[in-house]
Amino acid sequence: MTTAFSLILLAVLVFVVVFAIGLYNNLVRFRNQVKNAWSQIDVQLKRRHDLIPNLVETAKGYVKHERETLDSVTRARNLASGAQGAAQASEAESQLSGALGQFFLVVENYPDLKANQNFLALQEELTSTENKIGFARQFYNDQVLGLNNRIQMFPSSILAGMFNFREEEFFEIESAVERETPEVKF
Length: 186
Fold this sequence. Notes:
This protein is mainly α and 186 residues long. The chain has one domain (31-177): LemA-like domain (de novo design (two linked rop proteins), Up-down Bundle). It is 80% helix and 0% strand. Helix 1 (2-60) runs antiparallel to helix 2 (67-81). The longest helix has 59 residues, at 2-60. The radius of gyration is 25 Å and the shape is rod-shaped. The N and C termini lie far apart (86 Å).
């Protein structure tokens, strides 16, 4: 009877260890998916940041009287390039989006610039990059949700606490202007 009890106890112990290893590996997998998703955002943001100086340089010859707007875009780009982590990047990118919005409003007053092929190509590339950033943000937030759920839910929350897994921040829109629905007029 003691041999059977010992075997049952050993089987339960093995099951618990295998279960704990599975939970731990699952947490590691989700943490790595979040890191990967963040790097995808980072790649697209770098691409965006690299396009902006070319866009500003192309516009400089046309919008000589709009120096403040051009400087604002450049400052916002530099701030966004140096941002660390989701919260800081989100805030900096909101400021950059606002500066770009002002920039494109100014561009509307310069038909020659709007017709410039180089400017149009850069603008199209920036639009494409903005779309990729949107998809990357969504993917990142999905991965953060998966990790945070596992960190908060029982029984993985026990191992998450023991092995110092921390919840990640969502990439959120900070700017009230970006939250507004654009107005379309015909």
